[in-house]
What we know:
Elements: H1 3-25, E1 48-49, E2 56-70, E3 79-81, E4 88-90, E5 93-108, E6 111-125, E7 137-139, E8 143-151, E9 154-160, H2 162-165, E10 185-196, E11 199-206, H3 210-213, E12 221-230, E13 233-242, E14 247-257, E15 262-271, E16 298-307, E17 312-321, E18 326-337, E19 340-350, H4 354-360, E20 375-386
Antiparallel strand pairs: 1-2, 2-5, 2-20, 3-4, 5-6, 6-7, 6-8, 8-9, 9-10, 10-11, 11-12, 12-13, 13-14, 14-15, 15-16, 16-17, 17-18, 18-19, 19-20
Amino acid sequence: MNIKSLLLGSAAALIAVSGARAADAVTVAEPEPAEYVKICDVYGSGYFYIPGTETCLRIGGYVRYDIGFGDVGSYDGATNEDHEDGSRNHTYYKNARFSLKTWTGQETELGTLKTYTETRFDFGNDQGDFGTAPNPAHNQAVNLKHAWIQLGGLRIGKTDTAFESFIDYAGNVLNDTLVPYGDFNTNAIQYYFDAGNGFSAVVSLEEGSGVKGTIDSYVPHVVGGVKYTQGWGAISGVIAYDSNYEEVAGKLRLDVNVSDAVSLFVMAGYGTDDNLSDPTWAIPGRGRGIYKQWGGNWAVWGGGTYKFNEKTSFNAQVSYDEWKNLGIAANIAYDIVPGFTVTTEVDYLHAGRFDEFGAASPAPALNWTGADKKNSVGGFVRFQRSF
């Protein structure tokens, strides 16, 4: 064997060994099975299972753009200061909002475990003109509207007071508080009871909110309610104890489904006010607490909805209280496409005790709402995409 043959044979052997080692080093991992999101239809449409868990999640919300005109909301006019000469002009009130909502649900040995959150982000004008820079447009504080946990019938967290939410709000108008029917925000411990056959009840221990509404001792505000619901409508009532002022307020409500197109409601409220003091003018006996927000002892609200067709509805509300405050609101809501609604509303407010408060209060010419007019007209155009 000559040297040339020996070299060629050695090179071939090295190539073969190197190729074998390279082949042995390459391993192809088997693909892991894809884990697709699975639909969860136990709690309604839009839920899906969070991968790797038994928890169902739904994500939703809306994007909204409001354009207010006239005396915005009929009682809180949008004015501005002229940037050249300082004079006061009327202008639009505008607000853009993004609301993000989440729902979760899971079955446990103690019942259904639920959560709900809603967080709101706003850019818009400050309402009102009370001696400060009027109505600047800017990013406003993030608003945590709801954040609660519920296991079975027990709910804890941030939500609207049961004085409003249990018997429902005052109609489908945008501005349903021309005559206020109670405060909203509170931390709460609530228990909901469903007896079946349309009967339900709630007991709520609440902290309240605001300077005058937040509890000032270890005694909570207390709200209780009962409801009877059938296909024709519902009868419901709530009663609330204001622990700060030791006052009581209550509301009764009747809802009637006249037909598939027409639904009506009427709600009456009564509250004591011997110890209340108005949060603005501190006039004893004339004030409003966290629950009795209306003027005087009694108030009524009524209205309804008429559906012209699947896309268009007409909504109206009339409200009145013992102080002779009269509010009227009406709108037409039109669904351009599913999930995108345009609503145009007109509001009117007559401030019944404007003359008395204008003369007697430390802030003359302001009525019970903070408006500077006895009769105010305004409204909104709202564009809202819900998802």
